[in-house]
């Protein structure tokens, strides 16, 4: 026969504890019975029998009281607020929020708390989800108890396209009925949107920028197959130009693909801790042949280390673009200075600033706001002669956006230019 362990353990609980809790009842009963015996209103055997009955009632743990208390405890918790429902919502991979019929938050998981930090349990979700599309869909779902979908753009801290699905969920009530709660699930559509934009941009940009070198290659091939077929000097000159054009096309495609990859993951902030000092030194060493060719000295002024949260490969590309541009377009200044310092942003947030300064001709003020646009060039002829694709600074800007940083450009004509990459400092754990 099965034995209820909880009831048996409570029955055999220490007697001193029961006596302490029932002491006043037993003392009062004993005094009353003694008084009745002394006044000869009650015989001693009957008084003892009555005292035993009272003691049993006070000391024995009756099951009736325990069951009643248990039922009260169960009824105090609504089924939808149980730990099981909370665990189901917490285990959903996408951001999920469960609301009651009035729109108050019952449960939410960690992903939803990260997506909308203003969400609070037992508070109205409309106050935390301020997008008009969300509020409209939620009100319609509550009024009609029918599923609703809504797409919206979340612009903080970066653009993210989200889809909201509102599903009415029947849940049991305390009194055996059912009530419709609202389950909100958020699906991130950003990767799909990025892929579509990447495809469209790649086709548009590639078709536009590749048209010129492809036309040049086609013309030179026709010339080599025709009039210059037996001209060795012309063949060597044309082959050299064709090699330059092919290299430019390869670099253009490489820059377009790199830019597309960065844009595709722009909403995902890198979380790996990276020391940028050795990355900058590696880039400077790799560009030393170009510096010797342009007769430019690279001066490095860096601390022993500087750690940020970042992606190593993207940071290599960023610093390579900045330093290479300084070597190419500021060569007349004969030196390029790369330095790093700690500073504070406009809102007081500490950040690391990597400055790349050249002492060349500088940039006119009217060009500064547009330098990070795709294919924007201050001097188209000079840029193409230098092997530029017009995508370097655009790539730098997008990499900094993904790292939650910013790009500062300062220039004075005939006095060089300074490009500053600002990164938020990494938050080190207390155990580090």
From TrEMBL:
It is found in: Cell membrane. InterPro entries: BphY/WalK/GraS-like, HATPase_C_sf, HATPase_dom, His_kinase_dom, HisK_dim/P_dom, HisK_dim/P_sf, Sig_transdc_His_kin-like_C. The chain crosses the membrane at residues 20-40, 47-64. This is histidine kinase. Pfam families: HATPase_c (PF02518), HisKA (PF00512). Residues 205-427 form the Histidine kinase domain. It is an enzyme of class 2 (transferase). The keyword Cytoplasm does not apply. It catalyses: ATP + protein L-histidine = ADP + protein N-phospho-L-histidine. Keywords: ATP-binding, Cell membrane, Kinase, Membrane, Nucleotide-binding, Phosphoprotein, Transferase, Transmembrane, Transmembrane helix, Two-component regulatory system. GO terms for biological process: cellular response to phosphate starvation. Its EC number is 2.7.13.3. The keyword Heme does not apply. GO terms for molecular function: ATP binding; phosphoprotein phosphatase activity; phosphorelay sensor kinase activity. Coiled coil: none annotated. One of its GO terms (cellular component) is plasma membrane.
């Amino acid at each position: 026969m099965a034995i209820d362990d909880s009831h048996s353990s409570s029955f055999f609980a220490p007697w001193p504890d029961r006596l302490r809790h029932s002491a006043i009842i037993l003392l009062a009963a004993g005094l009353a019975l003694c008084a009745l015996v002394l006044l000869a209103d009650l015989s001693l055997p009957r008084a003892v029998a009555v005292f035993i009955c009272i003691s049993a009632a006070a000391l024995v743990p009756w099951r009736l009281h325990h069951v009643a208390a248990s039922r009260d405890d169960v009824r105090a918790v609504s089924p939808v607020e149980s730990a099981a429902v909370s665990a189901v919502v917490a285990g959903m991979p996408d951001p999920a929020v469960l609301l009651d019929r009035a729109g108050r938050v019952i449960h939410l998981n960690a992903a939803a708390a990260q997506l909308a930090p203003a969400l609070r349990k037992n508070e109205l979700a409309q106050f935390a989800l301020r997008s008009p599309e969300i509020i409209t869909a939620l009100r319609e779902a509550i009024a009609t108890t029918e599923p609703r979908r809504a797409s919206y753009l979340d612009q903080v801290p970066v653009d993210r396209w989200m889809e909201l699905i509102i599903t009415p969920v029947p849940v049991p009530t305390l009194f055996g009925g059912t009530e419709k709660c609202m389950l909100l699930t958020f699906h991130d559509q950003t990767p799909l949107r990025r892929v579509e934009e990447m495809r469209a941009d790649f086709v548009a940009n590639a078709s536009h920028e590749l048209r010129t070198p492809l036309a040049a290659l086609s013309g030179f091939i026709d010339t080599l197959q025709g009039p210059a077929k037996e001209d060795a000097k012309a063949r060597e000159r044309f082959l050299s130009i064709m090699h330059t054009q092919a290299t430019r096309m390869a670099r253009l495609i490489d820059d377009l693909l790199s830019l597309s990859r960065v844009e595709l993951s722009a909403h995902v902030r890198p979380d790996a801790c990276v020391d940028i000092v050795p990355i900058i030194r590696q880039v400077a060493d790799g560009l030393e042949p170009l510096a010797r060719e342009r007769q430019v000295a690279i001066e490095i002024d860096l601390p022993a280390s500087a750690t940020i949260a970042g992606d190593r490969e993207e940071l290599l590309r960023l610093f390579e673009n900045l330093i290479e541009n300084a070597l190419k377009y500021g060569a007349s200044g004969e030196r390029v200075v790369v330095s790093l310092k700690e500073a504070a942003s406009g809102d007081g947030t500490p950040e690391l600033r990597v400055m790349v300064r050249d002492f060349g001709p500088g940039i006119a003020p009217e060009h500064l706001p547009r330098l990070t646009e795709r294919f924007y060039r201050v001097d188209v002829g000079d840029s193409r002669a230098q092997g530029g694709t017009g995508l370097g600074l655009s790539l730098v800007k997008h990499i900094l956006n993904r790292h939650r940083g910013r790009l500062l450009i300062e220039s004075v004509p005939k006095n060089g230019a300074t490009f500053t990459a600002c990164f938020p400092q990494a938050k080190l754990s207390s155990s580090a």
